[in-house]
Design brief:
This protein is mainly alpha-helical. It contains twelve helices and no strands. Helix 3 crosses helix 4 and helix 4 packs across helix 5.
Length: 284
């Protein structure tokens, strides 16, 4: 029984570490997923160049793993650090591949070498974020506040404001680019639903599952939209509003455009904006 419980705890800790690493990867690497120059580089990269990129990234991630890493415990032994480096790169590549597939930048018809090039060159920056996961965001507004004496509306307003700021920062950098119309044109309604689901899942993982801050206190706070699911949905809607505003601000959308165009553009930009909004909530 003790062995079974210990094994269960080990798997639970490992899953928590993977979620934390993936969350760090999204925080660091999501903007590059919306950069067509990286797609082009990946599409034209030869196998030898891919190997050099992987080896170089391995060295950098290994050094970061020795100092930061994505686990709560530090890797003291070189062997452990090397194993975690391989895992960090694998997490980064898988996360990048999933998002590229959701955005239809990679499809079953994409040539294998082109697909591998895109996944590797998008996944390696993700791996850096995985290696830096534990050092990303450690601030917590709950450490210095008394939730029992705090008015119920304050946490909600703080989360909305932080989400809006984080989403605006990310959306501001991506909204003016041509990648949004390109991606939106290739995404059909079923894939839009998949993007919505992925945005909500990533946001929830970063804030409530990655253990960047005091999650227990965050989950126990009281107020409007102050439960994990309701807060995640609320934050996503705020991120969508920020995305639509930035697209309108940079003349990518106008009132003459049909609602389907507004929806498609907003959902595509809403994915990275939601990641920024989650980072904003953790930073306050």
């Amino acid at each position: 029984m003790n062995k079974s419980k210990k094994r269960k705890n080990q798997w639970s800790n490992e899953l928590n570490d993977i979620i934390r690493g993936a969350s760090g990867g999204f925080l660091f690497g999501i903007p590059l997923l919306y950069t067509m120059e990286v797609w082009w580089i990946g599409s034209s990269t030869k196998p030898a160049q891919m190997s050099i990129a992987i080896i170089t990234t391995f060295i950098v991630v290994f050094l970061l793993t020795r100092t930061e890493g994505f686990r709560k415990t530090k890797d003291i032994r070189w062997r452990d650090a090397a194993i975690d480096t391989v895992e960090a790169i694998a997490i980064g590549i898988v996360c990048a591949a999933v998002i590229l597939f959701l955005l239809r930048e990679i499809t079953p018809e994409t040539p294998l070498q082109e697909a591998l090039g895109k996944i590797i060159f998008e996944g390696l920056p993700f791996a850096l974020g995985v290696a830096l996961a534990s050092g990303f965001l450690s601030g917590d507004r709950y450490q210095s506040s008394d939730s029992d004496s705090e008015p119920m509306i304050n946490p909600t307003l703080a989360d909305i404001g932080a989400t809006l700021i984080g989403a605006m920062i990310i959306a501001f950098n991506i909204a003016p680019t041509d990648e949004i119309p390109m991606l939106a044109a290739a995404i059909s309604p079923p894939w839009q639903l998949a993007i919505i689901a992925a945005s909500l899942l990533i946001s929830y993982g970063i804030v409530f599952a990655a253990d960047f801050t005091s999650q227990a206190k965050r989950q126990q706070q009281r107020g409007i939209f102050q439960r994990p699911l309701s807060e995640t949905v609320m934050a996503y809607l705020v991120s969508l509003v920020a995305s639509a505003f930035m697209l309108f601000f940079f003349h990518k959308l106008s009132f003459d455009d049909p609602w389907s165009v507004w929806l498609g553009y907003t959902l595509v930009l809403g994915l990275p904006a939601t990641v920024g909004g989650a980072a904003g909530r953790l930073a306050v």
